Amino acid sequence: MARLLQFGLLVVLPSGKPLEAQMRKAVESSTFAKRDVFAKIFLVVIQRVKSASVTVDSELISSIGKGLLVFAGVGKDDTEKEAETLVNKVLKAKFWPDENGAQWKKNVQDIEGEVLCVSQFTLFGKMKKGNKPDFHEAADATTARKLYDYFYNKMKVTYVPDRVKNGVFQAMMDVELKNDGPVGVNYRSEDAAVTIEIDTNLPKKEPKEPKQDQNGKKGKSKDGDDDAETGRTFEFTIPPELLA
């Protein structure tokens, strides 16, 4: 993560008083590995469909009727926690109207629909520089397969196994869909708020050698209290909109 103050946050102690200057300096100098938040991005694109299918080498692999087509990509350092977050989000996403025609009231479980999962690492493609997609934020094949399989199997056991279908990992697939709407939403596991622990204690300084007076006596060091704590450890939550 970038330095905390780059988020434009004013960190406040539980007492309600703003951090003193030295504590603010401690917070600003505290760095958090970028991968701890931004690289843990399990990404899905959810399509509401009337039907969808996956074919590989002219062979039909899977097909569904009314339900969701879910393209899923695994990011570096993703864990099973991110996968579980997205499984719950997919199954609870309200994409259908209710019996009275009110929109966005029912999820795929409510309508007893089906789910077709398709792995897609290219969701992490970026073209900030040049015209060639850069996929460096995607997980390596071994990690991606393990977590994608976990995602798919978790989807099956959380919902109804017979209603959850799969594509073929790392295969060149022909994916056909009849989009209903069209309706499509992308969701990232990082869209959940992140709680961070901050230690505001300043690093200890090396004690300064006391100066001698005219009689050769050494005075007291000005840094005699350097071992005392100047801050505390506390937690706060960064909302998802600041993590985009």
TrEMBL record:
Stretches that traverse the bilayer: none
Region Disordered, residue ranges: 197-244
GO MF annotation terms: D-tyrosyl-tRNA(Tyr) deacylase activity; tRNA binding
SUPFAM superfamilies, per database record: DTD-like (SSF69500)
Biased composition (Basic and acidic residues): 202-216
Stored Pfam families: Tyr_Deacylase
Keyword vocabulary terms for this entry: Cytoplasm, Hydrolase, RNA-binding, tRNA-binding
EC number(s) given by UniProt: 3.1.1.96
Reaction equation(s) it catalyzes: glycyl-tRNA(Ala) + H2O = tRNA(Ala) + glycine + H(+); a D-aminoacyl-tRNA + H2O = a tRNA + a D-alpha-amino acid + H(+)
Entries under InterPro entries matching the protein: Daa-tRNA_deacyls_DTD, DTD-like_sf
One GO cellular component term: cytoplasm
The keyword RNA-binding belongs to this UniProt entry's keyword annotation: yes
Subcellular compartments: Cytoplasm
Family to which this protein belongs: Belongs to the DTD family.
Name of the featured protein: D-aminoacyl-tRNA deacylase
